[in-house]
Amino acid sequence: xxxxxxxxxxxxxxxxxxxxxxxxxxxxxxxxxxxxxxxxxxxxxxxxxxxxxxxxxxxxxxxxxxxxxxxxxxxxxxxxxxxxxxxxxxxxxxxxxxxxxxxxxxxxxxxxxxxxxxxxxxxxxxxxxxxxxxxxxxxxxxxxxxxxxxxxxxxxxxxxxxxxxxxxxxxxxxxxxxxxxxxxxxxxxxxxxxxxxxxxxxxxxxxxxxxxxxxxxxxxxxxxxxxxxxxxxxxxxxxxxxxxxxxxxxxxxxxxxxxxxxxxxxxxxxxxxxxxxxxxxxxxxxxxxxxxxxxxxxxxxxxxxxxxxxxxxxxxxxxxxxxxxx
Length: 326
Known about the structure:
Layout: H1 2-34, H2 39-51, H3 53-64, H4 69-93, E1 99-100, H5 104-123, E2 128-129, H6 131-149, H7 167-208, H8 213-225, H9 227-239, H10 242-267, E3 270-271, H11 276-298, E4 301-302, H12 304-325
Antiparallel strand pairs: 1-4, 2-3
């Protein structure tokens, strides 16, 4: 009976994470239009930052519960999906059958993304991700943000702003801004509650099936929290706005791998016990980061062939992880 209960809790909280994440994303998108925010801010910060909120709340909740390994698995799983399934979904739904990477700033961001994905793996070489490592990860995030803000003039495109020509229009847009702000606050509040349910049910599954929390984070929590990236890639591809896909995915890797893992490590250092499946998972993460970077920077596009390779890599990762953990 407990298994059914916690299974329902996990699925319900995963659905709540997705729906509340959508509230936050849509609310922030509309607010960005009211404020006339440039495209790169939405793509790199608003979308990626909002989509990373589930990872953040799962990370903080698990760290405070003394099980930060769950957050590590969540971030590793999320990054793998962002660099494989999420970008592949965008390619398969793109009108031109590929995603171009023509901006120099975006290509340079790919290097930051690859470094961000690889750095936690290297820092775990001594068997733990300590507080000093957390400071280093957060420092990399702040350095990237500072660099990116100096590149804003390279992005000339703006979203269509909501221009106000009368007091009536001003009041209308003010009401919409208040409504969207309430939606964002409510969505964040629900995210906190859902994250607690995810952590509690994941802990039960790990104990019930005698599985490591890292495995639960890698295969289940990571997949659930990566759904916003997959959804956004498909939606953007259908609209023909593939430039947003790359911006969102870069941010979706950098934010969890640096800022979130850094915060978790500061709250509760992460220790690993030489788990065989984790060693293999780190290799797959390194391979995904390398392939994604090579495809995006050398060919300056990701087409069906590249998407197929990345999808196969994720399938191989799942098979390896399950076999190694059994």
